[in-house]
Predict the structure.
Amino acid sequence: MLAFRLTDIHQPGAQLLKAPQKFDAPSTGRDERLSPPADNLQTLENTLTSRSRTTEHRPIASLLRLSRSLTIILLALIASIYVAAYYCYPWKDLAAMELPRWIIKFAEGVPNYTRSREYKPLVVFGSSLIIAPSSRLKDMHFSKPDEYGYRTNTPGAAIYESAIKSLRGQAPGTKILAVPGSVVSDQVLILRELLTSKKVPKMLVFTLAPRDFIDNEVGGKIGDTPTARVLAFVSHNKNFWPQSLTLAAIESCWNTHRSYFDLVRKHFSRSLRDKVCTWSGHPKDLWTSTLAAKKTDRSMPPLNEGAAEAREEKINADSLNLEAMARDLKTYRGRYQPPNRATFEQQVAALDQLLTMTKEAHITTLLVEMPLSRENLDLLKPEQKTMLAANIKKLATKYDVQFVNYNESAKPPFETADFYDSVHLNKQGAEKFVSVFSKTLAESKALQSTFPQN
């Protein structure tokens, strides 16, 4: 009889594969190799058992592979969404999250110029002080209102071109690139934008004021000014990758992405919160205050005519307003005092950098200190005035640049009656300024050498 193991009965097809282990009858002389040895049978049994176990674990392996695939797809989707947001998210809304939208619209005039086909050989830098005369004399250019009713405001220069032409017989095309609240470091950013976009002017006039060097409201946060923020958003798509493989460049790129992601997150959450408030009709206290703040920003009268503050009274200021002057003096007292040495040195260094850039780009430069009321100048300590004047004159001498100061003479050409508040000229003062400023330009060596008469 043939002897079979019981386990062979339970293995499918085992009866067909396994031969009898031993014959009871004596050997018949046949070749023993026809009967597989016992160890081969054991190996075959182990193989079949292993295959059975492998089949049992296949669902787990499939799940793991599927999980890895889904993870890769999810990461790719997140990366794609971030890249799309980085390049396509409405940067104006991000820039205006913590700044008045009307100031953002002024700052937007800089990239609008650099991206356009317009080119002017004479460019004027400055703050709201140089915007005010154009506003008072109705020489402003406006874009179409955006969804919030705000328009991009650009001060015109026709009033100066006309006055210079009457003095010299001809006048160079002039462009005013000024942003309310800008400081010296902002002018460096604007000039860099001009150089990068191949809009290099032949002559640059920088209209400055003491606040540009010592503004305590700006302090060391020169990267958070309206000008800096707008230009950063405009050019941020150029900084998706590090400029180099140095540690500093990689860290800077990482910080840029982190800041941008944080702004997008905040803006998205605020927008979602506003919609929930609108849908529910019963917002929580925090949501109510957030929504109220946003409505307040939108309800502010647009600065459609170029004044420095978002107040209708300042837009149509034709004469001195004592109440506005009192408010302005209170504001400037906080901007001037206490003196911040670090801020001052930082902005002086920015002026040095600005003049270095103009020299390297072969841009003729003229520095002009804008007129201020006597009441405003009296807020400055004597040592502040001395230190400021000395540093500006030192740099002007270093770079062979002419410096004109309308506040330095014993009898300045402007009186308190020429101002609306303590720093911005009213209509009467604007008319006087156009005459004085145009004469300064026409008679300057900078303009005469850059634009010689035919």
User: Anything to note?
Assistant: Confidence is low (pLDDT under 50) at residues 1-25, 284-288, 294-315. The first helix runs from residue 14 to 17. Strands lie at 122-126, 140-142, 153-155, 174-178, 203-208, 364-369, 402-405.
